[in-house]
Design a protein that fits this description.
The chain is α/β, with parallel strands linked by helices and 232 residues long. Helix content is 35%, strand content 27%. It has one domain (4-231): P-loop containing nucleotide triphosphate hydrolases (Rossmann fold, 3-Layer(aba) Sandwich), CATH 3.40.50. The chain is globular. The chain starts with 6 loop residues before the first strand and ends with a strand.
């Protein structure tokens, strides 16, 4: 088990039901216990319908469980108001999705800066320096002033990774991040996650159907029918 003093994420008896109180109420998560510590690099796997997306939305503070508790950096989150949840999500969690969701009207540099701009308005010189250094980390410094339409799919996903890291998050969530990439680009993006995990100490939780990626993770959490079947 991870050292509690280094715990980034702790799920305790997490349950999620839909249509609560109605005849068609259904529970999709049946009591999830999970810990992620700093430097953990884990894959979340399971068949379609196993509850992966629901669990990831709850971990990302995009949805709330029906019961149980989610601790992020030791702080209980279930009773938080929306403003506090939004602020914590923005500062502590980085997201990378299968579709990069870059804003087409903005340059690569501006897209990377967007989480900081949303949080505090006009970026500082230090913010810009950080964003440029992250673009350099992902091999995209020469493309900082290009817009997404001028970049390949793999390049856009690299920018999305830099954007996810600009807040120096404690937890990086990646949902099928290589699903639309060719094999080489997928390997490159996975390598970026590895470097981020090692360099910044952020915990990584990677949802993937690609067994090559899950096998390359340090830990594989298998979800089946709303329960953790294995954590190896």
């Amino acid at each position: 088990m991870p050292d509690a003093s280094q715990s980034v994420l702790r799920l305790q008896g997490l349950r999620k039901s839909y249509n609560v109180g109605k005849p068609n109420e259904v529970e999709v998560l049946h009591g999830i216990d999970l810990n992620l510590a700093r430097h953990d690099f884990a894959a979340l796997v399971g068949a379609s319908g196993s509850g992966k997306s629901t669990l990831l939305n709850i971990i990302g503070l995009l949805d709330v469980p029906t019961a149980g508790e989610l601790f992020l950096l030791g702080e209980p989150t279930i009773g938080m108001d929306d403003a506090r949840r939004t602020a914590l999500r923005g500062s502590a969690i980085g997201f990378v999705f299968q579709f990069h969701h870059l804003l087409s009207a903005f340059t690569a540099l501006e897209n990377v800066l967007m989480p900081l701009m949303v949080a505090k308005g006009k970026p500082s010189a230090a913010d810009r320096d950080l964003a440029r250094s992250l673009l350099a980390e992902v091999g995209m410094d020469a493309f900082a002033d290009r817009k997404p339409g001028e970049l390949s799919g793999g390049q856009q996903q690299r920018v999305a990774v830099a954007r996810a890291l600009v807040t120096r998050p404690a937890l990086l969530l990646a949902d099928e991040p290589t699903g639309n990439l060719d094999s080489q680009s997928a390997q490159d993006v996975f390598a970026l996650f590895r470097r981020s995990n090692e360099k910044f100490g952020c915990a990584v939780l990677l949802v993937t159907h690609d067994t090559r990626l899950s096998d390359a993770c340090d830990r594989v959490v298998t979800l089946r029918d709303g329960l953790i079947l294995a954590d190896a």
